[in-house]
Design goal:
1% strand, two-stranded antiparallel ribbon, Hydantoin permease, binds tryptophan
Length: 469
């Protein structure tokens, strides 16, 4: 594989990996998930999972990807054919996430234009506008397709020219606007209530569902558990310090999530909105906040949604890339064909997901396509995918080979190696198993247990037919 594409530069890799991690997961999903799981306690559990599990799994993905110089499926398969299913499960997760992610990406894109179309002038109506928009059968589909098309264009061009450039330019802009929004929000009356909600834990309300939500959020936000970082790692050159890269990406991603929380909750409490408001949160809070600022508000709101769209893009291209890399490496497609075939399937899934928000289309256990794709990946596939990778690394790969990979054949120091190895081999698999088990159990109270069990069954089927994959 000498002619495998490589990242243009170190900073290019960090920006691309951080670009994959930072996305709708941080700015759209994190605030509303924290909000509907009670705030502070959820946030603390999430942070513990990020530090212990997220960082370690990311390092494992980088190491496995670079060691084998192959994308997700190949990295497993080249070591042991029986493990192919773990890689293919990741490709399936990629499809499922891309079955709803472009819908939300499309909302972000649409909002760039809605801001100029008078969205901010009637402040009281901002919530209704959002509700009306996403439940409309046609409008969001157009935006979703436009968003998906942008992905197709970027990924067709290949990694270093497309993904890298997109990431480098707009990430700092996003960061700056989030700071601006936080500052603005914190100066509103009653803002401290929001800060308290976000950071003051009340552990008495924690259930198995809360803990699983925190674990799922950690995996989703860091782009873990589906081979995304394996694929990115496979493009990484041998001189890079993997642990340092994993630490930087983890820190950046978590920083942005916390900043997004700080941008939303003080303003929400000040406006008297419900913290458990759900998926519309950023699309309602941010315009409401900027509505207070007159003409400049319109400009900043538009800039925010541009930056959100770009952050979403640098994430979704990484999802598409996993699927595309699989089709190129394993099924010998050329890049353009691989992109077109996978994006077409994703478009169909996203159409179902978008329609489901207006109450149209099929349901499983009472949930529409949007929720099913989200629940399957966020609550089951990513965590189990991460667990499988850890079992693979800890029990199937050779410890000294991993040490060599992480220390660049002994050229670097990694003082935490033994600790990391113990986490990967024992602690993470056991923790993920227990958290998933108790999460599924308490899922039955909220009516989503059936979908989670379905997810486990799918994984079982994949494992059983692994030789054919
Ligand atoms: N992490 C991205 C976000 O927060 C989404 C994402 C990109 C992802 N690649 C992934 C999630 C791989 C899970 C696995 O928006």
């Amino acid at each position: 594989m000498e002619n495998r594409e490589n990242w243009g530069s170190k900073i290019g890799f960090i920006m691309a990996a951080a670009g994959s991690a930072v996305g709708l997961g941080n700015i759209w999903k994190f605030p509303y998930t924290a909000g509907s799981n009670g705030g502070g306690a959820f946030v603390i559990i999430y942070l513990v999972f990020v530090a212990l599990i997220g960082f370690s799994v990311m390092l494992t993905e980088f190491a496995v990807g670079r060691r084998n110089n192959l994308a997700a499926v190949g990295a497993f398969k080249s070591v042991d054919k029986r493990w192919t299913f773990a890689g293919v499960l990741g490709v399936l997760s990629g499809f499922l996430i891309m079955g709803f992610y472009p819908v939300v990406g499309g909302w972000a894109l649409a909002y760039v234009f809605k801001v100029f179309g008078g969205l901010l002038t009637a402040k009281e109506a901002i919530g209704d506008v959002f509700g009306g928009f996403i439940t409309n059968p046609i409008q969001p589909l157009m935006w979703m397709l436009a968003y998906l098309l942008l992905n197709v264009i970027i990924v067709s061009k290949g990694i270093s020219s497309g993904i890298e450039k997109a990431g480098k330019v707009l990430m700092p802009v996003l960061f700056a606007i989030l700071i601006l929004i936080s500052v603005k929000g914190l100066t509103l009356p009653n803002a401290m209530e929001g800060v308290k909600f976000l950071f003051k834990p009340d552990f008495s309300k924690v259930t198995g569902a809360t803990v699983l939500a925190a674990l799922g959020q950690a995996f989703f936000s860091l782009s873990l558990g589906m081979g995304c970082m394996i694929t990115y790692g496979s493009y990484l050159n041998k001189e890079e310090n993997l642990a340092q890269n994993a630490a930087i990406v983890t820190a950046m991603d978590t920083g942005v999530a916390l900043l997004a929380g700080l941008a939303m909750f003080p303003a929400m409490f000040s406006f008297g909105m419900e913290p458990a408001a759900g998926p519309g949160l950023v699309f309602v809070v941010v315009p409401s906040l900027f509505a207070e600022m007159g003409g400049a508000g319109m400009f900043f709101a538009a800039l925010f949604f541009v930056a959100l769209t770009v952050a979403a893009l640098t994430s979704s291209v990484s999802l598409l890339e996993v699927v595309v890399a699989y089709l190129i490496d394993e099924k010998k497609f050329d890049r353009v064909k691989a992109v077109l075939v996978s994006a077409s399937v994703m478009a169909l899934m996203s159409i179902l997901a978008s329609l489901s928000l207006g109450g149209l289309g099929p349901t499983i256990f009472g949930k529409g396509a949007f929720d099913v794709f989200d629940l399957l990946t966020d609550k089951i596939f990513l965590a189990i995918g991460g667990m499988l990778l850890c079992i693979f690394a800890g029990w199937r790969l050779d410890k000294e080979e991993l040490r060599a990979e992480i220390t660049n054949e002994g050229k670097l120091q990694f003082g935490l190696f033994e600790f990391w190895y113990a986490l990967v081999k024992y602690i993470i698999p056991v923790t993920v198993f227990l958290v998933a088990f108790s999460g599924i159990k308490s899922g039955f109270d909220s009516g989503v247990g059936g979908i989670m069990v379905l997810g486990v069954v799918i994984i079982g089927v994949f494992a059983a037919i692994s030789k054919k994959l």
